[in-house]
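Two quick folds needed for the group meeting slides. Do the first one here.
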Amino acid sequence: MPAAPADSALYGGLFNDPETARLFTDSAEIRAMLLVEGALARVQGTLGLIPPDAAAFIDRAAQEVQIDPSALAAETARNGVPVPGLLAAFRKAAGVPEPMQYLHWGATSQDIMDTALALRLRPMLTLWETRLTSLLQSLATLAETHADLPMAARTYGQFATPTSFGAVVAAWGWPLIGWRDDLPALRQKVLQVSLSGAAGTLSAMGPLGPQVRAGLADALGLSDPGHSWHSDRSAPGHLASFAAGLAGSLGKLGEDVLTLSQSGLSELRLAGGGSSTMPQKQNPVGASALVALARHVIGLSGLIHQSALHRQQRDGAAWFGEWLAVPQLCIATGRLLTLTQEITAALQPDLAAMDRLLQSDHGLIHAEALTFALARQMPRPEAAAAVKALCDEAQATATPLPTLASRAYPNLGWTPGDLGSAPAEVTAFAAKAR
């Protein structure tokens, strides 16, 4: 098993999301850090903090220079951050010492790295929103198609009352609407510039420091928090919380698919994977990976939240902990979304299996509805006791409960199988999802 399955040639097809992963390559990080350095120089030149001609040279060079990530490995291991090595390589590649002395003026490594991460998270959040929107469209269509398809609802793993498969699908989709609608607020909290200087005071920039930070935010299309956030790890915490919540909602769908496709129930037909020894098997591989990835994301979220325990003005140990967890969390969350779309597209309800299960257990699934029908003619406690006696008789005689009820109460006017608000739930969900 490789150290990082998402990066594996063997396991990547199961766990990786290439579109998200490309934002977390060494090259992507270096390119983002150079863009931050160039924009910082441009803003500082405009404000007169550094010579305008030097600022223009740095900005242009930052967009043109090519730096090999592997050339920075030794210095990164020694310094704990890649920025000192990057700056040295940038100055050497530029070949003009005079303007390059103004590179990285008054900033610190964490400013560059946290801002560069925000630049890479921006297209990632757009990608997630696109996928969520597409997934909700698919779920809305699936729910509408089966809005009136009866099936057995379960509570505590036991048959409860009838519902519809469309309502089950709508229940999967409702929380995803909430996560989609939370994305604008998440962007505001996560996509922010970091410019604080060595210890959070911007002292090297003098009174122009706050203006530089605001200008850098504007130049990069990020928000300006208006203060230092080196030791305030709320931004990655918000990202982690969002990912964990979304993973919980998608993982719930996976758990339901696993349950509904298991032998003996088989209410869903899936495109499954094969077994090495049992030729009859079609294993629910996608749903299994979905649940595993959901648990993984939730666990990584906890690791990221631990970085909130950030000592003093900057804490290398807490910060390094984020580096280990954030890329994995983002890639796994991206894969959760694509995997859920794949699973949803392949779902096929087995109508015969659903009907068979509704009729199983002698129709006891209709006991609640029968109780309330009887409660219109007698006090509810008496109705409940009467239905309990009919349930016992149904089990003892293997006679369906609706048959016994029609014999005992021929004028009740009760028809089993009422789906209640299930179809209306589907209609409301589909409208909101679209």
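Then this one, please, same format:
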Amino acid sequence: MANKTLPHKTRIGLYPGTFDPVTNGHLDVIGRAARLLDKLVVGVAINTGKGPLFSLEERVDLVKAEVEPIAGRNGMIIEVLPFDSLLVDFARQVGATMIVRGLRAVSDYDYEVQMAGMNYRMAPDIETVFLMASETHQFIASRLVKEIAKLGGDIASFVPPTTLKHVMRRIKD
């Protein structure tokens, strides 16, 4: 049998979220997804319904700053883009064939399975892949980080240093 070289298809994934703020759990999933892909697009959703602490532009800037070292370590492209459309439409727009979702606990599972099923029905050519957050980050949620910070608690172990400075500055304002 002849040894044939198959053409390499660029593996592009999309990791969507509000990232308000970006946490060490998010960065854990991003780093793990980066090892599986040639390019990862981090999609920052507008989602004003969640009452974000940061504007869309601020969240995009913070995620860009925090993922830069991950891209460098993995020698791959991580692009951070805002979006306000249907997730599968945005995935197609950026050329993604994979949607990456992080799971923290069983409580995330039901919602994520429903979302994956709906996305598959609308776009069967785009797979959803679940990555479990590492055991040291499974409990971190942006909502809880904001609540702890607003009540004067220490969030240093939940968010990266640059994000910590921005969160604390915003809470003081």
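Slide caption for protein two: The longest helix spans residues 56-74.
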